[in-house]
Write a structure and sequence with these properties.
Elements lengths: L3 E12 L2 E12 L3 E6 L5 H8 L7 E6 L2 E2 L5 H8 L2 E4 L11 H12 L4 H14 L16 H12 L6 E5 L7 H18 L2 E6 L2 H6 L3 E6 L2 E6 L1 H5 L4 H7 L2 H8 L3
Parallel strand pairs: 3-8, 3-9, 6-7, 7-8
Antiparallel strand pairs: 1-2, 1-4, 4-5, 9-10
Helix pairs in contact: 3-4, 3-5, 4-5
Length: about 260
Amino acid sequence: MSDPVITVANVVTRYGRNLVHDDISLTVGQAEIYGLLGGSGAGKSTLMREMVMLLSPQEGTITVLGHELSTISRAEASLLRRQWGVLFQGGALYSSLTVAENIGIALKEYTDLSDSLIQDIVRLKINMVGLPDHAADLYPAELSGGMIKRASLARALAMDPKLLFLDEPSSGLDPVGAEAFDKLILKLRDLLGLTVVMVTHDLDSIWTVVDRFAVLGDKKVIAEGALAEVRRNPHPIVRAFFGGARGMIRSQNGK
């Protein structure tokens, strides 16, 4: 693995008396697509939200791009946030703004670029994610599910981030749309050298684009590594994921 971009060490997370993470540790390498896999309630999205400073663990440390998040200053945190983009489950686009306006929000807030240059960058990002030019003037209610994902991805890429966080990116998409979106993520990683953290429970994404991943279960990381390595793990949760019908079909197809 390349030098770590993200290091999670001995993280403990609680919601009141509910223990979500119990001594979680993992590492994400430079320019890899890293998956967080697990069943509902395993704490995947919670861990991602801790990585982007929307939540804080009760114990342990999370280091992102060399910054330890629990001790970072407010000014450093503001600068660090500009180095990543986030695609939340459902897209989280502002319904009252057009696609172009949604994508341009961060550029208007954090840069001194002229309106004309911002418009040029927005058009570039729209083309980068495979949306037609006319999508710029559409509102979220006028978009299909796949277009919402791509528009949200364009917004996440607006500031040319080093890191990209994706929360269930294929959720709500049909199999064709999900496969196309996975291929887009892979293409953008290779083109831009992005490091990608992807929260997912979709085995197709794990087989198609993820370099390494962690399986969360029993409040811990029960397996971490590349697909071939994780599939050898004897833990019952891992066996349930990869020994089911979908996993068997993938295995028989040699993928």
